[in-house]
Amino acid sequence: MVISWILGNVNETIKKSIMFMSTAKDMWKNLEQRFHVNNGARRYQICKILYEIKQHGKTVLWEELYDLTNYPPISEMNAEVSEYVRFRQQ
């Protein structure tokens, strides 16, 4: 079930690179290693743009900046993680 969810939520290129892994854990570790990159230059660029312009209610850059913020990997589901997931889905 989790493997199907992962494969259903990645693009075709990524799907081809992980589809033959035997467990969802292996897939997740691969994706985490691939995408857990601190892109300081892009973060600086977004901050600069945000401080220089008025967004007129648009949230696209704020969301991209938020996505570049480093958070520790989730190793287990607990009450704090559940609350965070509910918050992000609102």
In short:
This protein is mainly alpha-helical. It has helices at residues 2-8, 12-18, 24-35, 40-52, 60-67, 79-89.
Please explain how this structure is put together:
With 90 residues, the chain is mainly α. The protein has two domains: 1-36, no CATH class; 39-74 and 81-90, no CATH class. It is 64% helix and 0% strand.
Q: What's the helix and strand layout?
A:
Elements: H1 2-8, H2 12-18, H3 24-35, H4 40-52, H5 60-67, H6 79-89
Q: What's the helix count?
A: 6
Q: What coarse outline follows from CA principal-axis ratios? A: globular
Helicity, as a percent range: 55-70%
In angstroms, what is the radius of gyration? 16 Å
Mean pLDDT: 76
Largest sheet: none
In terms of per-residue confidence, which ranges show pLDDT below 50 for 5 or more consecutive residues? none
Strand content: under 5%
Q: How many domains would you count in the coordinates?
A: 2
- Count the E strands: 0
Distance between the termini: 24 Å
Specify the structural class.
mainly alpha
Order of helices and strands: HHHHHH
